[in-house]
UniProtKB/TrEMBL annotation:
Domain of life of the source: Bacteria
Pfam families (alphabetical): adh_short (PF00106)
UniProt-recorded name of the protein: SDR family NAD(P)-dependent oxidoreductase
GO CC, any one term: membrane
Record key words, sorted: Oxidoreductase
PROSITE patterns per record: ADH_SHORT
Stored InterPro entries: NAD(P)-bd_dom_sf, Sc_DH/Rdtase_CS, SDR_fam
Biological source species: Oceaniradius stylonematis
GO terms for MF: oxidoreductase activity
Similarity comment: family membership: Belongs to the short-chain dehydrogenases/reductases (SDR) family.
C-alpha cells in the first residue's frame, strides 16, 4: 500500500468520523481509525483505541501511528461538547473538552509531522465548527476549543505546504444529524434540520481534495458564516435565543 493510499481519522467509530472513515475506505484507502470506543465488527477500517483526553495516551499514539504512515489523508475530527450555563459545568469537564478538541489534534499534527508521517501531496483536515464564526451561548467552552483549533490550522497551512507539500484545510460544519448532537441539543430540537454526517463528510472531503483552506459544507453553513461576519452581534443574540434560552439541562 503506497503512502498516498493510507488515511487516518480520529473519532472514527461514530457520527461524522465514521462517515469520513467509510468514505475514504470506499475510495480505496487503508484507513486507521482512532477512537476510545470500538466501531463494531463491520467497520471497514483498522481501529486503534485511544482516549484523546489522556495526554500520555496521545503521546504513545503518535509513536504507534508513525509506523503506520505516511498518510495521504489525515482527518482530525474527534470532538466532544459541554452544554449548559457556563458556571454549571465542572472544571474537569472543561479540561477534558479542551484536551480532546484542541490539545490532541495539535499534538498529533506536530508529532506526525516530526515523525515524517505526512505523505507529500497529502491532505490534512482539521474539523472545527460553524461556531468559529459566531458566539455560542450555552456551549462557550466548545466554541472556544473549536475556534482555537481553526486558528491553529490556519497558522500551519503555509508552513506545512512549504515544508511537507501537504494541503491543510479547516472544516466548519454546522449541526449534524448525530447522536452526539441530539444529546446536547435543547429539548424538542428538530433533528431533520441537521445535515446527515455522510453528506457533510462528502462535502468536506471534496473541498479538501480541491485544496480549499476553509470549508463550510452546504449552502446553509456558507450563508451562516457570511452573515456572522457581517453582523456578529445580532447572530450571537439569535444563537442565545435558539440555544441557550431553550437549554433545560447541563450535559458534559
Amino acid at each position: 500500500m503506497s503512502a498516498a493510499r493510507r488515511a487516518l481519522v480520529t473519532g472514527a467509530s461514530a457520527g461524522l468520523g465514521r462517515a469520513f472513515a467509510e468514505q475514504l475506505a470506499a475510495g480505496g484507502y487503508a484507513v486507521t481509525g482512532i477512537d476510545r470506543d470500538a466501531p463494531g465488527a463491520d467497520a471497514p477500517f483498522d481501529h486503534l483505541r485511544c482516549d484523546l483526553a489522556d495526554p500520555g495516551a496521545v503521546d504513545t499514539l503518535v509513536g504507534d501511528l508513525a509506523g503506520r504512515g505516511p498518510f495521504g489523508w489525515i482527518v482530525l475530527n474527534a470532538g466532544i461538547s459541554a452544554t449548559g450555563p457556563f458556571e454549571a459545568i465542572p472544571p474537569e469537564a472543561y479540561a477534558r473538552l479542551l484536551a480532546v478538541n484542541t490539545e490532541a489534534p495539535m499534538v498529533l499534527c506536530a508529532g506526525l509531522a516530526a515523525a515524517g508521517a505526512l505523505a507529500p501531496g497529502g491532505r490534512l483536515v482539521f474539523v472545527s465548527s460553524l461556531s468559529h464564526f459566531t458566539g455560542y451561548p450555552g456551549a462557550a467552552s466548545y466554541g472556544a476549543s473549536k475556534d482555537a483549533l481553526a486558528v491553529y490550522a490556519k497558522s500551519v497551512r503555509a508552513p506545512f505546504k512549504k515544508a511537507y507539500g501537504v494541503s491543510v484545510s479547516v472544516a466548519c460544519p454546522g449541526p449534524l444529524r448525530t447522536d452526539h448532537a441530539a444529546r446536547h441539543a435543547p429539548e424538542g430540537a428538530d433533528a431533520a434540520k441537521r445535515m446527515p454526517p455522510d453528506e457533510a463528510a462528502r462535502r468536506i472531503l471534496a473541498g479538501a481534495q480541491k485544496g480549499r483552506a476553509m470549508i463550510t459544507p452546504g449552502a446553509g453553513a456558507t450563508i451562516f458564516a457570511l452573515i456572522s461576519r457581517l453582523a456578529p452581534g445580532p447572530v450571537t443574540s439569535a444563537m442565545k435565543r435558539i440555544i441557550y434560552d431553550k437549554l433545560d439541562r447541563s450535559v458534559f
